[in-house]
Amino acid sequence: MIIYLHGFRSAPASIKATALQRHMAGRGLADRFWCEQLPVSPAAAIARIEDEIARARAAFPERAPTLVGSSLGGYYATWLAERHDLRAVLVNPAVLAALSLEPWLGWQDNLYTGERFELTRAHLDELRAIEVPHISRPHNFWLLAETGDEVLDYRDAVARYAGARQTVLQGGDHGFSRWNDYLDDILGFAGLQ
Fold first, then answer.
1. Domains, the chain, ranges and CATH?
2. Per-residue pLDDT tens over the stretch 127-156
3. Inter-residue long-range contacts of 129-135, CB under 8 Å, 24+ positions, other chains counted
4. Distance between CA atoms of 85 and 67, rounded to whole angstroms?
5. What is the pLDDT of residues 62-111, one digit of tens each?
């Protein structure tokens, strides 16, 4: 099972989420993919994802789910992977989410749904509460980063995930432009090949 966690201002309709969903469906794995719109509140998002982790473990007891998190979703995936001993693929992940999102306080638009939402200081406090300063099981993580990320400094992720599998590509952007090249490898990492 792959649990895909989208980023800030993103949605299940994002390019990466839909590409992975189509890829898995084409391999007969449609029932092994989950991605829903996450709540704005980090605490509520974590609670929703933990419900899905429990559901996935009950439905597919032979293998724990793998988290795939992009940007803010990578921040969530890190905390959840550490808490539940899960594997996680982190795509241009937010490392210091509370600091990264501070300039975005106030009203925002979801890039895919157009929905308006407010990012508050309470949300930043919720992000601080789930920060993972050091990963304890590097073998559970795979970092996918592009050096051309215009939103987050890839070097922060390289340092945070020291010891983990890392694929750092020159150029690219925050959307991870070479995403489709890694879909089969992601399925392999999740034990779905």
1. 2-189 (3.40.50.1820)
2. 999 999 999 999 999 999 999 999 889 999
3. 129/42, 129/43, 130/42, 130/46, 130/75, 130/76, 130/79, 131/79, 131/96, 131/97, 131/98, 132/78, 132/79, 132/82, 134/160, 135/78, 135/82, 135/160, 135/161, 135/163, 135/164
4. 11
5. 999 999 999 999 999 999 999 999 999 999 999 987 778 888 899 999 99
